[in-house]
Write a structure and sequence with these properties.
This protein starts with a helix and ends with a strand. The protein is mostly helical. The chain has five domains: about 40 residues, no CATH class; about 190 residues, Lysozyme (Orthogonal Bundle), CATH 1.10.530.10; about 80 residues, no CATH class; about 55 residues, Membrane-bound Lytic Murein Transglycosylase D, Chain A; about 55 residues, LysM domain (Membrane-bound Lytic Murein Transglycosylase D, Chain A), CATH 3.10.350. Helix content is about 45%, strand content about 5%. The longest helix is centred in the first third of the chain and has 24 residues.
């Protein structure tokens, strides 16, 4: 509850009067009036802030106007606690940001963008599905090679997501050649920025297309600008914190099988919370069985013990909860656990319901796998379907009968071929067998490629 200063002053005067008159003794009065410490909040004028901003050296253009000033006031006056929380967290993530920004030749100031995106919280998720420090949407994350499934979401990995954000920002700059438009595009998407440019009569500056941008995007760049200013003038606004967070010093080991993090933490005598903090991309408290050389981060002081007893520790941590998690994973909408990918071309008259029925999957799964909203699909559209191994032959029965493996024992990949479709063409052939014969690590094949099939 907020208490106005003039009310506290009046209360103090009243208590002093009662004390002086003898109604309240001096010792008692000390317990009645609470000790409240006020924080000095400097009140800088519009022009004083403008002078400071004009002196900032920044590769990203910094425009100053009343909108920017209003956000500076917000971060330095109205919500100082949020700014202090960011001050406490920057040492956790800014070194990571600075490394990748320098690696990709991007302006150092872009590190402040994550404050606006996520409040430097690597596990935060928005109501529309964006996640992580850089708030990647699922589709955009996959576009920049951030793996996502029931167990793992690399959008939450501070290292991988930061590099992906740098690559994305660089691609946006190559398109717009203007950092303010790049930031607007990062928030709204390049399509909405191009639409705003067109509606403005093909103006090319953020503040020229400001009125044609989505409301959230209009405040996005001013917030970013305000945050750059605030973190360069913390002392001027009397912003101080008693402590800051520092990252746990860590090293990595590569793991290629199931590991329960709680059991693992007990084995190396560390708090499981520390292991989870170091590995935020592991959504279920475990490394999945299908992981290939997953980089598990652990406190660096635990490395000698782990390396000396690696096999026993990992074996012991590979039992608990494995089957339960696998069963849970298989029931999730859009799960691909234990399934094989099939490509289905929509025929005239087909609807999602009949396609789902044919492959014995749920309509919700088909929607999730193909990012389809509602039930609208079109003739000729290619859909990705993930079928269970035992379902392959049932689907195959509706197609032409398979033939024996030819004497050449090879198959020339044609456009549109998948391992699943190839396996159906030859009697007794499976996807696993094709992968084994050809030393394939995944299901990716290319037209013109020759596969051994027998």
């Amino acid at each position: 509850m907020k208490v106005h200063r003039h009310i506290l002053l009046l209360l103090s005067i009243t208590l002093s009067a009662f004390t002086a008159s003898g109604y309240i003794n001096a010792d008692t009065s000390k317990n009645i009036l609470p000790e409240i410490q006020y924080e000095y909040v400097p009140d800088l004028s519009y022009h004083e802030v403008g002078d400071r901003i004009s002196c900032l050296a920044s590769e990203v253009p910094i425009s100053y106007n009343k909108v920017v000033k209003s956000f500076i006031d917000y971060f330095t006056v109205r919500d100082r606690e949020y700014t202090k929380l960011m001050m406490q967290r920057i040492n956790l993530y800014f070194p990571i940001f600075e490394y990748y920004l320098e690696k990709h030749g991007l302006p150092d100031e872009l590190k402040y963008l994550s404050i606006i995106e996520s409040g430097l919280n690597p596990t935060i998720r928005s109501r529309v599905g964006a996640a992580g420090l850089w708030q990647f949407m699922p589709a955009t994350g996959r576009l920049f090679n951030l793996y996502q499934d029931f167990y793992i979401d690399e959008r939450l990995d501070p290292y991988k997501s930061t590099e992906a954000a740098c690559i994305y920002l660089k691609s946006l700059y190559n398109r717009f050649k203007d950092w303010e438009l790049v930031l607007a595009s990062y928030n709204a998407g390049p399509g909405k920025v191009r639409r705003a440019i067109r509606k403005s009569g093909y103006k090319k500056k953020f503040w020229e297309i400001y009125d044609f941008l989505p409301r959230e995007t209009r405040s996005y760049l001013p917030q970013f600008t305000a945050m750059i200013y605030v973190f360069n003038h913390l002392d001027d606004h009397n912003l101080k914190v008693d402590y800051v967070f520092y990252p746990i010093k860590s090293d990595t080991i590569q793991v290629s099988h199931y590991v329960d993090l709680n059991s693992f933490a007990q084995q190396i005598d560390v708090c499981v919370e520390d292991i989870i903090t170091l590995n935020p991309a592991l959504r279920r408290g475990a490394i999945p069985a299908h992981a290939k050389k997953y980089p598990l981060r652990i406190p660096i002081d635990k490395m000698p013990h782990l390396l000396a007893h690696r096999k026993e520790i990992l074996d012991s941590a590979s039992i608990k909860g494995k089957e339960e998690l696998a069963k849970l994973a298989a029931t999730q909408p859009g799960s691909i656990y234990g399934r094989h990918k099939v490509r289905h071309r929509v025929r005239s008259g087909e609807v999602l319901g009949t396609i789902a029925q044919r492959y014995s999957v749920r309509v919700s799964d088909v929607r999730k796998w193909n990012n389809v909203r509602g039930n609208l699909i079109r003739s000729g559209q290619m859909l990705t379907i993930w079928v269970k191994p035992g379902q392959q032959q049932a689907v195959a029965s509706s197609k032409s009968s398979p033939i024996n493996i030819p004497s050449s024992k090879t198959h020339l990949v044609q456009p549109g071929d998948t391992l699943w479709e190839i396996s159906l063409k030859y009697r007794g052939l499976t996807i696993e067998r094709i992968k084994q014969l050809n030393n394939l690590q995944n299901s990716t094949i290319k037209p013109g490629q020759t596969l051994i099939i027998g």
